[in-house]
Amino acid sequence: MKILNVLTLALLIVGGLNWGLVGLADFDLVAALFGAESALARIVYVVVGLSAAWQIVPLVSALGWNEATAGHAR
Predict the structure, then answer these.
(1) pLDDT digits 0-9 by tens, 15-41
(2) Which domain holds residue 29?
(3) Which of 18, 20, 7, 21 is nearest to 52 (CA)?
């Protein structure tokens, strides 16, 4: 599970840097590498999005929300 967390975090960093380039320089690195409307670029965007969804689990765990909600269920 730790490997998956590290992998998804790395993908989020790459995605964040790509969005930074879009915002600062109007340059989409993923589109430049794989083609603006290519299936491969869309796959990269989807994988980065899924990585963000996966990282919700460690965030909730780190914030201790799972213990707080478990206490309310009693």
Answers:
(1) 999 999 999 999 999 999 999 999 999
(2) 2-72
(3) 7
Considering its fold, how many domains does the chain have in total?
1
Whole-structure pTM value:
0.77
- Identify the H or E element spanning 33: helix 29-34
Cα 72 to Cα 6, 62, 64, 65, 67: the distances in Å are 31, 18, 13, 11, 9
| Structure token digits, residue 34 | 């794989």
List, as one string, the DSSP characters of the chain: -HHHHHHHHHHHHHHHHHHHHHHHHS--HHHHHH-TT-HHHHHHHHHHHHHHHHTHHHHHHHHTHHHHHHHHT-
Return the residue matching tokens 């590498």.
33
